[in-house]
Amino acid sequence: MTRSRRALVSFTLAIAAGSWGLYWLPQRMLQDAGMTGGWGTLTQYVLCVLLLAPMILLRAMRGLPTGLNMPLIGLLMGGGIMCYANSFLLTDVMRALLLFYLAPLWATLLEIGMARALPHWSRAISLSAAVTGVWIVLGQEAGLPLPHNAGDWLALAGGAFFAAGAARIDAVQPEGITPMLSAFFFYGGLVGIVQLPLLAGHLGPVPALDDLFAMLPWLLALSACFFIPTNVVILGAPRVVGVGLFGILILTELVFGTVSAALWANEPFGWREILGAGLILCGGIAEVLLAPTSKPAQAPG
User: Fold this and answer.
1) How many other CB atoms are found less than 10 A from the CB of residue 100?
2) Cα distance between residue 203 and residue 36, in whole Å
3) How do residues 6-24 score in pLDDT, each as one tens digit?
């Protein structure tokens, strides 16, 4: 792999992940329009499955993998994003971002422990900058950011699942984006179905059919123009850039989320947010510029 290709994929991933920093906006809009109970998130997953169905059927007719053979990747990645998306409905935007973005630390630990790969020395610089930035942006004076409510726990679980899913993709190197997308939305949707009764007391009642039909065009546009394209990039990136760098670059979502929450959710934006966001960006840039293009060395034993 050339350095220029790795840098291009890294940049594309940063933009795709950054756009997810604005995803809390449509989630809150859907909730205000009557799509309570996490039904807006689940509907988007179902619509994505339906949009991908022709390609999946064609692959099945040709004897090619359809994604149903990737339950672990689907449950981890799709389920992680399902948890994350619903967490915005149950907790503050900033807390959801912070707890989800403990994932980069876990991703690097997975790279060391499961893949038995020794990260390049540049990882110490980039990860330290990124994690310090996260703490400065969202730590404030609240001390250790432990989960306090159902939304916090969903965000924390989502980050853990997502990091493990990225590690799984990096380990098995599945071929083709379409099967991974199918697994993401199909198995992630199953996680959403399981969540509905478990979180009924927190997420609210089943939405009225009139609300569902009124929001269907918006849900369809969100699924086709945002959900699928961004996940093409996010699902394909780990096997190109590696799970550790992947975990750092998706921190651009935190930058977008911090700024958007300050502008439209009346959440703080001052020197902490500016300094923290700068450190996060510097961490990702340092990793791209300093990391070697060869495979990491294997840990002894």
Assistant:
1) 28
2) 6
3) 788 888 998 998 999 899 9
CA distance 200 to 36: 10
Closest CA to 254 of 136, 171, 142: 136
More confident position, 171 or 234? 234
Distance CA 26, CA 84 (A): 14
Q: Which of 255, 279, 288, 253 is CA-nearest to residue 17?
A: 253
Work out whether the CA dihedral 24, 29, 35, 37 comes out positive or negative. Answer: positive
Cβ neighbours of 218 (radius 10 Å):
15
Phi, psi of 236 (to 5 degrees): -85, -20
Two structure tokens written together for 98: 């912070």
The structural domains of the chain, with segments of one domain joined by +, span 3-298
User: In the structure encoding, which two tokens stand for residue 144, read together?
Assistant: 């250790």
Mean pLDDT computed over every residue of the chain: 81
User: Are the C-beta atoms of 225 and 49 separated by less than 8 Å?
Assistant: no
Structure tokens given for 228: 């699928």
d(CA 272, CA 232): 33
Residues 296 and 18: beta-carbon distance below 8 Å: no
Residue 228 and residue 119 in contact, taking contact as beta carbons nearer than 8 Å:
no
Indicate the DSSP class of residue 118. E
Tell me the C-alpha to C-alpha distance, in Å, between residue 99 and each of 151, 157, 185, 227: 10, 9, 23, 22
